[in-house]
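Supplementary Note 3. Input sequence used for the single-chain structure prediction.
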Amino acid sequence: LLFTAGLGRAVLALCGWRGGVLRAWLLAPATGLAVVVLAVMVLNQAGLPVRAFAWPLTLGLAAAAAGIFFWRRPILPLKALAPFIAVTVFSLLWTGWPLLRFGFGWLSYVNDDYVNYCFAAERFMDYGFWRVPTLEELGGTDISQYYWFMHVPGLMRFGSELTLAWVAALTGIKALGIFMPVIIGLGMIQLASTAALVLHHGRRRRRALIATALLAASPLFMLVS
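The predicted structure, written as discrete structure tokens, is reproduced below.
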């Protein structure tokens, strides 16, 4: 969350964002995530396994963001951000407290999509996007190769799988273990985006905070997380 927020704010500063200082920071995590997913997608579709470039790409993006911050010097409105940060931290603890007890072995409500995301992420980590699986792999040596049919001929969306592959490659933890921290992080990004959606050029700040708090405490939102 912190990495995508810093990267996204740098991108908005580079683009000359004029939609308000607070709103820029609330939009920053989603913007940074979009940049990461697009970069990972381009390199993976160029034939590189995510594991091979995850750290160089991340360090390169961090260095670029630092350079933009030094150049543009965007304002950080800590006082205005504080209530939204508090709600986000509340959501982290309210939804993700089992991580403190079970660590990376914790699984919340999951279905078959959990396995789909994780296996597809493992394929992206170890192979390029277009790489055709072998008959031996399809025969049982690597079940993750079946997801080639979903994403290449089937043209299914794959942003979530690439995000999971990127975090798994950075941490060295298998997708099955890092899935819950990743989805909680995505939920926190969604909270910030909700506040930015309600907020408009510095107005309706109270409404934005209320909307974010209601979403954070929503049982359906917690179920998805």
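The mean pLDDT is 93. The first helix runs from residue 2 to 14.
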